[in-house]
Every structure is written in C-alpha cells, then in structure tokens.
Amino acid sequence: MKQLKVFFRASLLLLVSFVIVACGNQNSNNASTTDQDVVTNDEEPTVVKVGMGTEDGRIMWEEIGERLLEHENIEIEPVVINDFYQLNRALSDGDIDMNLYQYISFLAQYNEDAGTELRPIGYGSIPPIAIFANESIESIDDIPDGARVSFTDDPVNIDNSLIQLKTAGLIEVEEVEGERLSIDKITNNPKNLEFIPLEGPEVARSLATGDVDVMITGLSMANDAGFKPEDALYIEDTDKTPYYYQVMMVTNKDRVDDEVLKTVVDYYQSEETVKSEKARRGDAYVPAWHEGETPLEDYDKYVRDFMNK
Hints:
The chain is α/β, with parallel strands linked by helices. The protein has two domains: 46-126 and 243-307, Periplasmic binding protein-like II (D-Maltodextrin-Binding Protein, domain 2); 129-235, D-Maltodextrin-Binding Protein, domain 2 (3-Layer(aba) Sandwich). Helices cover 46% and strands 19% of the residues. The chain contains ten helices and twelve strands. The protein has a five-stranded mixed β-sheet, with helices on both faces. β1, α2 and β2 form a beta-alpha-beta unit. The longest helix is centred in the first third of the chain and has 41 residues, at 2-42. The protein is globular and about 65 Å long. The N and C termini lie far apart (110 Å).
C-alpha cells in the first residue's frame, strides 16, 4: 500500500511537471509570434514615389508595388504626370524619388537645358514606336497625298519619329553621324505629308479627334487613347533600337547608389514583371534591361557623342 502511494505521488509530480513545461513552451511560442507581429506591424513601410506619363504605367507599378510591400516593406506610390518636362521637374524638385518614361537622349537634353543632374539607374523597356491612321487608311501605301501627320514635338522624339517614317518608306532623310534628325533634314517627301508637332500626350488625342490623318507615337501612349497594336500600320522593330532610345529609370545624381532605389530597380527587372506585362500588354511591352548593363556609362557616352559637338 505504501509503495502504491509513492507511485501515485511520483506520477502526479511527473504530470504536473509536464503540464508546467508544456504551458511554458506554449507561452514562450505565443510571445515570440506576438513580438514578431508587433515588430512587423510597427514598422512603417519605406515610401518610394515613382513618376510616369501614362495610366498604363500606373497599373504596372501597382503590381510591382504589391511584391515590394510584401517582401521588402517598400511602398510604391505611383504619380502620373502627363507632361514630359514636368516629370523631370518633379524629380529635381524632390516631389518624386524616381521616374520611368524617358530615353537617355531626352534626359541628356533636359539636363543641359534645365541645368539639372538627373541620372539613369536602370533600363526599363523599349516602347515600340508605331504609325496609326484613321479608319479609311488600311496600309502605309493607302496614306493619301497631303496627309496630316502628328508626332511629339521635342528634338529627341522628332529624331526617332523620322527614323521610323524613313524605315516605313514614307520619307527620305539626310543622316549625319552624331546629329539628330530634324524636319529640315527631310530630302524627299513623295506624299507631301504635312507634319504637325504636338506635346506628347496630345499626339494620340489628335488622331482620336480627327484633327490629323496619321500619327506616330509609342504604343503606351496609343494604348492610353484606346488604340491597340493590331490597329497599327507599322510597328518599330525593337531589335534595331539604339541604346539611347530605350526607356530608363531615373533619379537625382546623389541617389544613384541608394539601396532602396536599387531594390525597386531589381523588382522591376524581374521575370515576374515580364510575365505580368506580357500577359497584360502583349507585344506592346518589350523589356530593355540586360546582363552587365551600364546605364551611367551609356549616359556619359551619349553626352560625349551627341551633346559635346
């Protein structure tokens, strides 16, 4: 009987010890999880304001922002500004942290004119330049004599537009190495096309409203105005696009080594972005980044070759 009591006491002590340890472990685990949640919840995300020229760009950055917020606690705030010059002014004034919309060639000209020091931090995409026309014109050959053609009115976009008009067989131009093309360099205009220079976002609207017969613009701008790639009479072959007509991510010179911005660039330059944008935009989205890219060196090369004449 005495031995039986001793056995019960030992069993009871063992059971109590087990319960205490188990409860202690559970409380310890709960405390660890709670502490981790509190730390996560208390940490405010780092906000990065990204400027862009189209609503189409906003959709893309919202998708990238979801991934950045989930994995890096970086919150992307898209800022749409329908003015190419204001997008850079907002950056130099500190209203945004970076932008994505411009070529190296546009950036170099802007810096020279405005006295700013904006710099590229990564390649983005190659927005193919396309030629669209009103519904009565079904092919390049159908463009009538005297047709009114709208295009973006700045030296960089004029150059690129004339390159594409030449490639499409509509004009001939005098090309001088190291110099941009301009209207006065057109040597043959067999259809007597009338060129109508407009601010960037106004180009697509000009065809939509019937103010012109033909427009030449990027597919992103065209898409914002309701034009689809399949409606184009001509689309640029992006395999032949020079490095200085690839769209760049840009920030201020003193932030080119900013680790947060580098992370944003990495998430943009990912397979997830390509898959998402290809599914949404098809051939209108062409990624421009490549292994070993040197955006700052490319910028300096362009300045040496084209700006220091």
